[in-house]
Design goal:
mainly alpha, 9 helices, cell membrane, transmembrane helix, LeuE-type
Length: 201
């Protein structure tokens, strides 16, 4: 990988990791409701899910998905259902991590990774990454190096959303602010997939 390609990959990884989306809104809500430490599995799950997709696409699944567009349509429906379920969970949280409420627990590592694996937008980004930044003669070693570089940028960057949420805990802990905040987060989570549903491939 040339220095120019490396710089471009780092820049792309930073922008894509920092931009608003379902995963980052989940991190913001989790940081505010459960703090940074309890949000770590969510951070790692989001990153692991996406980077696993990059690896799978790099091995050739991207060509299969391009050949069978119906896969994208199926993923859209699954993603919509999953996002609505997560938004419902967030909207029901009334206080910070209250143990007496079944919805009041952080999104787990597996749940976070699953979100990425059913997210067509994430599959598209994974395809862009492999096509644009993967060397044709790099093989699996080159693919793993690219994934490692992306991870070094992705994990700290998406963590900033959780940190921002954790910094808001004191402000939203008074009165009905927690409930209002979580309802807003649920609505933003659903709104973040609107472009996915409104526009065709």
């Amino acid at each position: 990988m040339t220095p120019e390609t490396l710089a471009a990959l780092i820049g792309f990884a930073f922008v894509m990791s920092l931009s608003p989306g379902p995963g980052n809104f989940l991190l913001l809500a989790s940081g505010a409701n459960f703090g940074m430490v309890r949000t770590v599995p969510l951070i790692l799950g989001i990153s692991f899910g996406f980077l696993s997709m990059v690896f799978i696409v790099g091995l050739g699944l991207g060509e299969v998905m391009a050949r069978y567009p119906v896969i994208d349509d199926i993923l859209r429906l699954i993603c919509l259902a999953y996002i609505l379920w997560l938004a419902f969970r967030i909207a029901r949280i009334r206080s910070f991590g209250s143990a007496d409420h079944p919805a009041a627990r952080p999104v787990s590592f597996i749940e976070a990774a699953t979100l990425q694996l059913v997210n067509p937008k994430a599959w598209t980004v994974a395809l862009i990454v492999t096509v644009t930044y993967m060397s044709p003669d790099g093989g699996i070693a080159g693919l793993l190096v690219m994934i490692g570089i992306f991870a070094l940028v992705n994990i700290p960057t998406i963590s900033s959303w959780a940190l921002f949420g954790a910094a808001m805990r004191n402000f939203i802990s008074h009165g009905n602010r927690t409930r209002i905040f979580n309802i807003i987060m649920a609505l933003l989570l659903v709104a973040s997939i609107a472009p996915l549903l409104m526009f065709n491939r």
